[in-house]
Amino acid sequence: MKLLEPKYRRLMRALAIPAILIFVLSVIAMVTGRMALSYEGIAADDAGRLYLGRGGKIEVYEAGQKVSAITPHVDKSFLFTVRDGQLLLSTGKTVVTLDLQGNEVEQQADEDGALYKELKAQRRSFTAADGTRQTADLLWSKESVYLSDDNTTGFMKYYDGGRYAFVGLLPSEGVSIADYVAGLTGGKLHALLNDPQHGTVEAAIPRFKASSSLELNDALKAMGVTDAFDASHADLRAMGSAPNDQLYVSAVLHKTYLSLDENGTKAAAVTAVVADTASAEPPEVHRVVLDRPFVYMIVDTHANLPLFLGTVTQMDG
């Protein structure tokens, strides 16, 4: 998993983002955000109601609107599903059966943790680019901005203040990540980011880390920054001294790092907090599960331009 790999440089140029701007913004403007993520999962009943586990509760949504919240009487974290018109919760040791209104029906032992293991396996599946099934921690959240076009579904997750957002883009089934990236032009990305749909998005993001190291010499020279790299023309005396006063820039290295887990997103070691957002009208319900290769970005929402851009094609380890 890389940030700003060579194959993305043409796209960034098409979006008119100078390399030096990416460098500066990624150093001073990025965020560590707390996201409202949950391990408890998501399920639906035959009537189309969605059940989203968040913070030890199960929120119930109907036609995109939250209609109730169920607080199971269990003393530890749990996984759950809807089966045969009932909610089944497992803590790994105990199975709790509730009716769909949240009333407890019975409790029984989860023999060998069978139900818990089954639900955990469903939650932890990621299909890599080569077709292998891998384990991943899928972190669930409820978002309000849905992105789509003819071969994309995705979502935008705002950070506090709304200036920056995490974006996940999932290619349609049958479209490889390589083909998708090859067709992800500046115009296509601009259209996706500038034509969002407001509705409830049940989103799942795998925990991942990504890093990249780039040399910016050529990009800076192409922008006209040339004297600093020439020992005979550079004048960097205000920065320090060197033998024969030949102080010049030999290389500009740009290193980036991004990690996403249940505590939020880290990039360039500055801190902020994620805020929930809400749409002004009854939203349509969408579901985007990033359980196969996808494109991710952190976007400056004022300019609708990506500051970080990369793909996840497999789970590390």
Write a structural description.
- By secondary structure, the protein is of the alpha+beta class.
- Helix content is 16%, strand content 40%.
- It is built from 6 helices and 21 strands.
- The protein has helices at 6-14, 19-28, 114-123, 177-182, 186-194, 217-222; strands at residues 2-3, 42-44, 50-54, 57-62, 65-70, 79-83, 86-90, 94-98, 104-109, 125-127, 133-135, 138-149, 152-158, 164-171, 197-206, 208-215, 253-261, 264-267, 284-289, 294-300, 305-312.
- An 8-stranded mixed sheet has the order 1-21-20-14-13-12-15-19.
- The longest helix has 10 residues, at 19-28.
- The model is unreliable at 1-10, 12-39 and 268-283 (pLDDT under 50).
Neighbour order of strands in the largest sheet: 1-21-20-14-13-12-15-19
Topology order in helix (H) and strand (E) letters: EHHEEEEEEEEHEEEEEHHEEHEEEEE
Proportion of strand residues = 35-45%
Q: Rounded to an integer, what's the Rg over CA atoms?
A: 23 Å
Number of strands: 21
The global form is elongated
